[in-house]
Give the backbone structure.
Amino acid sequence: MTSAPPADLAGWRHVYSGKVRDLYVPADTADDAAPTHLLVVASDRVSAFDHVLSPGIPDKGVLLTTLSLWWFDQLAGGDGGRGIPNHLAADHVLAGDDAVELIPDAVRGRAMLVRSLDMQPIECVVRGYLTGSGWAEYRTAGTVCGIPLPEGLNDGDRLPEPLYTPAFKAPMGEHDENITFERSVEIVGAETAAALRDLSLEIYRRAAATAEARGLILADTKFEFGFDAQGVLTLADEVLTSDSSRYWDAESWRTGTTPAERMASFDKQIVRDWLAANWDKQGEPPVLPSEIVERTRERYAELLRLLTAS
Ligand SMILES: CCOC(=O)Cn1cc(-c2ncnc(N)c2C#N)cn1
């Protein structure tokens, strides 16, 4: 179980920890030098309501990393060769006939060796369905991120068209700020803003179709991109995992009569619901009961099975 602090990894220097992931640079990287590669390590930590919870979810880091790697591969190929370039680097080098693994044994399976990119400060959120913060805004203003929507929509409804709703990436640990597309143009320039939007919508449409073919709804997701050394806008971060996306069971959505029934999700909704019923949001959150931990782990594992079973 890796809800522990970031591991010491031979050959790597820990430089930053988010709520659930840890970032490393090669140990020989000078303080003022830009690394060519990074190691992004997913822990078993789970967060909700801006708190890292205890205990972690066993195998969460491996399950979500495996799903990210599967999606990177799905998106890189197919579609008539119009693959989506991603930041993954080769995780081994050949020395003669032997493959030398570059990812330390201690984190193998839950780490990604990636090319260091010039990251764009935009969270590229795509919403195919109305829920979460989008539903909350819609109820009071009839809009989502300022975009007007038809009247009469309910929590969990499919949107007329997938919506691109960018957010400005706040400094590490602070909340991202929803912005208009026009504001994103001011931040990254018109060409890059349009490319971020178009790539995000294309990836969402392809991923939603892949999920639908497997009995799943991709309700919403978020992407991050950066420019590589050749100036190619490249898909980075994690992609289409339960931490960055909402997935629902398509049959439950179709037949359910209440939002909870319709949005039978494959993410940490079980944790959120339990906390909402057992914590007043004051002080530190309670320790999660083992039954909640195991059910959450099973949802992560079930999502991976449903998507990747050939
Ligand atoms: C603690 C975990 O935080 C993150 O992974 C967010 N983050 C990503 C980068 C990044 N920076 C340059 N190149 C990349 N390929 C990436 C990626 N992914 C930096 N922070």
In short: The first strand starts at residue 12 and ends at 17. Residues 16-18, 21-23, 38, 40, 87, 114-117, 119, 226, 236-237 surround Q0T (CB under 6 Å).
